[in-house]
Fold these 3 entries.
Entry 1:
Amino acid sequence: MFPMGLNPRQMKQMMKRFGIKVKELNDIDTVVLHSPEKDIVIEGAEVMKMVIQGQEMFQIIGGTIREIKNEEKEKEEIEITDEDVSLVAQQANVSMEEARKALEETKGDIAEAIIKLKSN
């Protein structure tokens, strides 16, 4: 039931009188909201677009919400190959485990990892 006892048809007419246009966006699967600290991923949500006095507004209803912190996102994006680990281990004269850890800490920067390991 809609507010004020209106049926959907009456509600649509009232919104039209006030210059509010509503459109359901059926072709959207996932909505991602980015912020400096985290990303919010909403999957399977209904998305409505409303135009009120020339301003566009989007409404997201329901769906499965998942938060990804930027630190986790960075870890996912870094690809450390076995060749990189081997090179760092060989150049810094350390074990493969130490080399991998140094590469993870330096976000995959080979030169920085070698310098870090040699300075310890």
Entry 2:
Amino acid sequence: MRIKWGANIVNGAEVCWEPGRVANPHIGVFADSGMGKTTMLRRIVAAMKESGHPRVRFHVFDGHGDVDIPEASSVTFHESSDFGFNPLELSADPEFGGVRKRIQSLIMAINRTSTKLGHRQERALSRLLIALYRRHGFVMEDHTTWAADPANGKRYPTLLDAIDFGRERIKVMATGSSERAVSALQDVFRATKQMRAKEEALSRDGGDDEAALAKLERELQAAQEKAIACFTEAVKTARTGDEFEDALEADGQKETLEAVVDRLENLYQIGIYRNTTPPLDPRSRVWRYIIKSLSRDEKKLFTLTRLETIFTRAVQRGITDEILDIIVLDEAHWYSDDAEDYVINRMVREGRKFGISMIFASQAPSDFADILIGNLGTKLLLGLDHTNNAYVVRKLGLSEASLKSIIPHRRALVQMKGVGELASGATMVSL
């Protein structure tokens, strides 16, 4: 794989990018608006496609709908879409996949948006999805159950399944026999405490209120009879064996679960999580996800859940010297986050050995966390606003004079960190 940036303006030598010669294959393209970022992205994709592995797959996340790539298979995602990706699809790998990791990655993606889940909602969503997976035959503790088997009717649950299951659980909380049994048992405990408290009070005061005690005893007896009837019904109507445990977990959680189901319904309405797979051509090496119609939070949610799937599959594929997945993030500052466990930060740190290259396009290096900037093996500066100069001089070690020598669309600064190098200079290139 090879990208020709241009000619060194000092000696005319060809300046090229080859993944085996740089510290890592990740690239940052930085330029102010109108300075050629989109054109450079097309040029990079074309060069990598021409010189890369025959099985390389590009994933272009197009936030404005203007990164048109020749021969790309493009799909537009919006709230009226009939297709989308299933956020509940599992990896069956016993080390890197499974129910718990899938649930946690979804919760983490949701919590990267402006409206985060509360701790009780996280717990309720986790319990709901664990039970949903179990109903479909995928047991969290047993990795041998994690693979789907469509031929025999075993498929991964979908977001719509989760919504329906959540509604079912809410209804059961209000009317289910196990829930009524738990509630009736609590009534017994409450009546017992009242009676004992009354007895102790009378004993201390030396009083005698037989009428009050008789009334409390009748209430306790009625509560006991109701509890016995409810438990009898619960025993007779048990189907899965999990009813009573679910009832205990659900006790007092109805409002929380209702809020979780509302959130899932809102996610479904976005239009990115549908039951029908998007019509991306498997023969095309470039898949372009057009997400211009989505809000900023929706773009982030779509991109993060998709990247999680791509990264998990790459890790499951194993270590390789070939670049097989290339991620192109236009307006990459939308997805910036400094958390260690953030999927993008994990991909720039670990993706190289699993055949992943990431290409970021944004207006300035200052848009990104240090963890990401430090893991970009190559940085292209096509023309920055002067307000970014101080940051670039301090963080990238470039001179202000070199930044002023950039001529948009004609001259660019290319900084490539070689294998084994701790720092690197920059080359002024004639494009």
Entry 3:
Amino acid sequence: MKKVAYDSYYEEENYFGNPYPGLVAFFTNIEIRGTVLDLGCGQGRDALPLGNLGYKVIGVDHSSVGIEQLNQQAKLQKLPVEGRVGNVCDYPISAEIDIVLLDSMLHFYKNDLAKETQFVEKILTELKGGGIFVNCLLKGQQREDTLKHIIEKSPFEWDILLDDYTEYKEANAEFHLFAIKKRS
């Protein structure tokens, strides 16, 4: 299998640390306990804790090293979590998916803006009615406004479930947590 940049990062166990406290709190408190599609799941920083909360999780990442580690941990912990190697931008969002999670996948840098906009538009289009889109983004007004603008111009109606910040002490940073539910 072709080696990708993140493979070398994932040689260190738990490279990106623990999940954001606000993200765990959100998933703990929402009523839906369905299937989560964690796009860009890496080693399972979010997927494994979500499995522990009772969610079925499908994690997709282009790093076979990260996915192998995720699957080993899921098996060891007997969690309903499955990692798959794939291109997150092209991965289909089937009707079984209740929640799509992007954690630190979007940055909206100038060179990535068109590609990331298409990626979000694809998610918004393919997500079923009643489905939830959860995004974690490094705090920054321009990035946050860009995401909200993409959502506002989509042809679908959305209910905002979460629009808040969470402190991530491990990286000395704050992240914007934004969760929306697609109206049926």
